[in-house]
Structure formats: structure tokens, C-alpha cells
Amino acid sequence: MSLTPVEDAVRRKIDTALQPTKLEIYNDSSKHAHHKAMEGSVSKETHFRLIITSEAFKSMMQPARHRMVYALLKEELDRPGGIHALQLRTRTPEEEEIQIARERKEQGEIIAEVEKS
Fold first, then answer.
1. How many CB atoms lie within 10 A of CB 58?
2. Is residue 36 pLDDT above 50, yes or no?
3. How far is 41 from 107, CA to CA, in rounded Å?
4. Local structure of 36: helix, strand or coil
5. Among positive and negative, which fits the CA dihedral 9, 13, 16, 22?
6. DSSP string across 1-20
7. Distances (CA, A) of 106 to 43, 64, 100
8. Beta-carbon contacts of residue 69 (< 8 Å; ≥ 6 apart)
9. What pTM, to 2 d.p., does this model score?
10. Sign of the CA dihedral 57, 13, 21, 46?
11. In DSSP terms, which residues pair with 47 in a beta bridge?
12. Coil, helix or strand at residue 112
């Protein structure tokens, strides 16, 4: 039996439905275990942050992408002790490439500034 059944289900459902080129799943539950809403919860898998890059998001606005993911994870969101909080970053492969280029450019600018000093 897996120690992370919710994370495993999330990964399986997203992989199957969206065939992502990138999928990062972060279980941030331990950072929120002390919150009042978590009192009495025995689940160790309540707060997730997902980064998903998929062609399935092409020509969709962010709210529609998020609704798609919420629909895929409905069971995990609805069940007692299930996912309490879900943070999503959804991109197409093209948007991912643009973001990587932007980050590289910013990093290059930072390095150039340090070298001038």
C-alpha cells in the first residue's frame, strides 16, 4: 500500500487525462497541519500545489483550465479528509517555453549586473 494514495491518484488521473509534458506535484500538507481547519484531520495529504504543462490547455483561459483539473480531481476534493487546498499553475508547452526564456533572460541580466559591480 502506498504512503501517498491521494498524490498517486492525482498523478494517475492527470497523466491519463491531460498527458502532460510536465507535471510537478508538491504535497504542502505539513505546512498547514497546525491550521484550525485541519484539527481532527488524520489525512497527511490535504494541501497540494500542482504545476501542469499540457497541450490539453491550448486555447483555454486559466479559469477553464482550473475547472478541468477540479473536475478530474472531484473525488479527491469531495471526500472527507481529502484535498482541502489545491494551488494550480497550468500552461501550454508554448507558454512554458516563453516562461523559461523570460527566466533565462532575467537571470542573464542579474549576472550581468553582478559582473559590472
1. 11
2. no
3. 42
4. helix
5. negative
6. --S-HHHHHHHHHHHHHH--
7. 40, 30, 10
8. 14, 50, 52, 86, 88, 90
9. 0.79
10. positive
11. 85
12. helix
Residue given cell 500552461 in the structure block = 91
- φ/ψ (deg, to 5) at 73: -105, 20
Angle at which helices 5-18 and 62-72 pack, to 10 degrees?
Answer: 120
Distance CA 88, CA 86 (A): 6
Per-residue pLDDT, 84: 81
DSSP string, 43-62: -S--EEEEEEE-GGGTT--H
Grid cell digits, residue 97: 517555453
Q: How far apart are CA 52 and CA 86, in angstroms?
A: 13
Residue with grid cell 537571470, as numbered in its chain: 107
Pairing of strands 85-91, 47-53: parallel
Looking at the predicted structure, is the pLDDT value of residue 86 above 50? yes
The DSSP code for 80 is T
CA atoms of 85 and 19, how far apart (whole Å): 23
Euclidean distance between CA atoms 25 and 22, whole angstroms: 10
In the prediction, which pLDDT does 38 show?
A: 42
